[in-house]
Amino acid sequence: MLDLEIVPERSLGCDAWEFVLGMHFSQSVAIIQSQVGTIRGVQVLYSDQNPLSVDLVINMPQDGIRLIFDPVAQRLKIIEIYNMKLVKLRYSGMCFNSPEITPSIEQVEHCFGATHPGLYDSQRHLFALNFRGLSFYFPVDSKFEPGYAHGLGSLQFPNGGSPVVSRTTIYYGSQHQMSSSTTSNSGRCAVPLPELPLSCYRQQLHLRRCDVLRTPSATLGLRLHMYTEGSSRNSDGSLSTRRVVRFGDSCQAVARALAAPARLYYKADDKMRIHRPTARRRPPPASDYFFNYFTLGLDVLFDARTHQVKKFVLHTNYPGHYNFNMYHRCEFELTVQPDKCESNALVESRGAVSITAYSKWEMVSRALRVCERPVVLNRASSTNTTNPFGSTFCYGYQDIIFEVMSNNYIASITLYQPEGTRPHYAVNSIA
Question: Which pTM was predicted?
Fold first, then answer.
C-alpha cells in the first residue's frame, strides 16, 4: 500500500517521488515506470476520435488514484484519490487515512483545521468540504439533508455514523467545482491549469511556440520561443529565450542555439528511399543522424557528410500514435502558400493556409488541394514487430511531409530541402 503525503494545491507523493500539478504527462509516466513492481496495473485513458476535447487520464486502480491531464497542454490539472481504502494519506506528517484510521469528518477537521461550510450536491447526495487546492467528498444519507445548509459539522449523526471521505481531489485554485467531478459534457474538467512547476524544468529547454520560417514556397528554418530556469526570471519563475535554426546550420551551431540534445540517434536505414528517383544508387557509407529534443517536440536531421541540417521533424504527441509520450507537443505555426492551380490560374487566387499542431488534415488538404495518394507508414520496433496503433499516412506537399493519423489529426510534420536546391558547402574533415 502506498504511503503518500498530500500538499494542497500542489502535489501527492513521498520522499522518493511526487506527482506535481502542472507537470507534463511524460514526467508522470516516468515516475510510474521508476516504481515498477510498486505501482501496477496502470491504465491510460483517452479519446481516439476527440483527443483535444476529452481529458487524458492515467488511472491506477490498484492504488485508487487517478491523474487527470489537460488534453491540449498535456499537463496535470487534477489528482484524484477515488478509493480511500487502497492508500495511506498524510498531511504535514500526520496520517488521516489508513486501514487503522478512518477519514471521518472529525478526523479531517482535526488534521486540516476549520474551513468554510461545505457544498451539497442533492442529486448525488454528496457533501464537499473545500480547502484551497483540496476537496473532500462525503456521501450523506438523504434523511440528514434538511440540515445541510448549516454545514456538515452541524448535522447530528448516530454513534459511529459520521460520514467518511469517499473521494479526495487536489487541484490548482481556491475551489473545486463539484458538478460531475468538474467534467463538462465534452468530457473535459473545467479547472485552472498551473504553469509548469520549476521542479519539473530539470535543466531542459521547454517550448512556448515554434514559427516555421518560409519563403512563398520553401522552408528556411525555425524560430523557437522557449523558456527554462535562470537567474533573470519572469513572474512565473522562468527565463525566456528565442533562437533560430536554419537549413545548412552545422551541428555545433544547433547545439549552441538549442543546447545539447536529449539523445543522439543514427539512422539505421531509410525506408522512404525506395520512393526517390535516386533509389538505385549506392547508399552513403555513413549514416545521417538526429538530434532529438524531446521537450521541444523536435528532431533535427544532419547530413552524414557535411554535418549540416537537412531536415526538421515537428511532433504533435497525440495519444494513439506510435511515438506518443516520447515528445512534448511542438506548438508550431506554419503558413503555406498553396500552389497555383494551372487550369484556373487566371481566375483563382487562394490565400495562405495557416497550419498548427491542432489542425485537422481534412481542412488542410482541402485548403491546399492535396491530390497525391499517401504513402502508408507502419512503424514497428526491432524487438516488437506489432504496432497496436495501426498505420499512418504520409502526404507530400512542396517541401513538407504531413504524417496523418486515422482520426485526421497531424502526427508530425517533416520539413526538408529538396536535393536539387541544397547549397554545396566546402566542409573540412572532422577528426
Answer: 0.86
